[in-house]
Design goal:
This protein is about 45% helix and about 15% strand. By secondary structure, the protein is α+β, with helices and mostly antiparallel strands. It has a domain at about 25-90 and about 130-200: NADH Oxidase (3-Layer(aba) Sandwich), CATH 3.40.109. A 4-stranded antiparallel β-sheet has the order 1-2-4-3, sandwiched between helices. Helix 2 (about 30-40) crosses helix 7 (about 135-160). It is globular, with a radius of gyration of 19 Å. The chain starts with a helix and ends with a helix. Its cofactor is FMN.
Amino acid sequence: MSDVENLLARMRSRYTAKHYDPARRIPDDRLDALLEVLRLAPSSVNIQPWHFYVVRSPEAKARLMPSVKDFNAERVRDADCVIVFAIEKDLTNPAYLDRLLEAEKADGRFAPGTAFEDIDALRRGAVLNYCRTEASGERWASEQAHIALGFATLAAAELGIDSTVLGGLFFDRFDEDFGLRAEKRRSVVALALGYRAENDSNAMRPKSRFPKDAVVTML
């Protein structure tokens, strides 16, 4: 099977898990690989405005449950773990931007003689523009976090891990219970990960999407 065929087969077979097998655990090396995919996800001007909370231990799961809306309670309880995606709220802080620039230098992003000061100034200007208000800044950061979410769902499918995107959480409650406000972060979405239960009927349903000519316009 070619790379193209393999990718399309993976996307055609991937589905949103509704019921998880609580007895099955994700091997640590696979979870680590998925977290590395999250770390490597792209973001506008490389801003990386995210932090990922991996809720996996029984104690952390118990703390999470008050933040879970009723219809998601079973899948959160039975999934191996839940990754909560949070955004950084203080992106215009010079200390954050300085740390980002130093990381890029350490990683060799700039060839000798590169005017990295100009690149840094361009990024700082973009950040100030996107973050003119608190609401606009958080919206921009959330958009970047959802890019990472898309990478995670595809990576999970590639690793044979089932997943469920979770919008049905009380995110304000999570922020309060897990101390995100003190860290100047805000949770925006979550992803349950694990292995489907044998009785998960959603796995048997045909995938339903609009046809390509309804959603794609070639110009």
